[in-house]
Amino acid sequence: MQPRFVQVDIDQTDTWTRYRQGLCTGCKARCCTMPVEARLSDLVRLGLVDAFEAEHEPPKQIARRLTKTGVIEHFSFRDVVFTLARRSSGDCHLLDALTRRCTVYERRPETCRRHPQVGPRPGFCPYEMNNAPS
Length: 134
Description:
Layout: E1 17-18, E2 37-38, H1 40-45, H2 51-56, H3 59-68, E3 72-76, E4 81-84, H4 110-114, E5 124-125
């Protein structure tokens, strides 16, 4: 019997796959089309903000600068959370469009480090087979 093909819909978590180790290796990085929230510490680790600026500049000022340069698309004043910019395709701007791999993997934000343990459906991910060259 042929395996049933389920179309993955990023917004329909019931179409997601239960996460298991090694699943990311052959994935299209569908999770990288979801909004990526980052804290100041993430922006420092990414090299987008230096430690002195993070300590001495108001987050609102940092958000204004990063919005102008196209690095973030939203800033929550209440939570001091930055949402990283995405391309018109919906991809995170830190994702390589051809290989579907993170260009800053070792420095990626905490949100990405903890996915799929946290997120819209903990323990599940929007896995879709990647046919791109690795």
